[in-house]
Automatic annotation (TrEMBL):
Residues 24-357 form the BPP domain. Residues 1-17 form the signal peptide. It comes from the Bacteria. Keywords: Signal. InterPro entries: 6-blade_b-propeller_TolB-like (IPR011042), B-propeller_Phytase (IPR003431). Coiled coil: none annotated. This is Phytase.
Amino acid sequence: MRLALPLLAALWLAACATPRVESPASTAARPVAVSAGTVTVPERYVTPENPEDELDSLATWPTEDGAIWLIATAKNTHELVVFDADSGEQLRSVGRRGPGDGEFLRPNGVFVHGDLLFVSERDNRRVQMLALPGFDPLGTFGQDVLRSPYGLWAHEPAPGTLELYVTDSFMDGDRFDVVPPLQTLDRRLRRFQVRVDVAGRPHVDAGIAFGDTRPALALHVVESLVGDPVHDRLLVADEHRERRALREYTLAGRATTGGIAPGVFQGEPEGLALWACTPDTGYWIAADQLLPLTVFRVFDRATLAPRGTFSGQVTAWTDGVALHASPTPRFPAGALFAVHHDRSVAAFDLGDIVQALGLDPACAR
């Protein structure tokens, strides 16, 4: 197994026999006018549409031969879809529906660290690990404690050891919009410790659960989360229609009063990525899931102050995003990838975003 590379600036139950009812907004969204001051950044490409997939989360992986794979979860077809990140060409699909190794049931979150690929499966109630490039199954964990896993994010606090954070958006019954009682929301987040031994075998602990239960800080409907170890910050998107915020936790699991408060997002805060331009500066990009166009909101990495908003020419109703900050032949400044309407993927050049919003030129180098 290839040694884990430094983390690129990133980004991500009902019973198996009884699918959970999704939000009504996902099938009948009301168009919202793009707010004044939002600039247009044209997409460099949008992949051909495949409505059957129901794409959700994205992650990138650099191959041994210098290419970049873009890996997407396809919830409806219960597989992973692999694209060439530079061209948008679909390369292959991986997996099939089922509870076994290498099989998936409503895969949602996806995260890459080194050659390890983590996939959260809502309806298998687990996280599955696979080894790249062959997508070889390494095992699963969390089945005994997770109820409805969604988002994923990990970092490496010590060599050879990962801390993997998972959002668990279980509801009260099978309805999407019935939030459980406050006292049960202390399990909205779970942190696992993952270690891979010299033989390539993974070892995972039982994990610890956390989540604030105070009315003003409790997490109601969760999916995306991304951390920033430099600033000891974990941002968690609360998608509940009456909250719509990015809540802030420390990496140890303590809620703060920081983050992005309700009132900023017009739609659901969905895909979230950290754009690290220097070791301690950069930006957060969060997708405001709207029609007819997604609004991408940019915040200062350290202060979380707003730094501008942009939309593409066609990209709408975005779920997951992935930010690849390293240069590629087509994207010398790196790229932001975003799901478009559950059925395709759009690519933005980070240099175009820097120029359009007047961001730090160091981010385009």
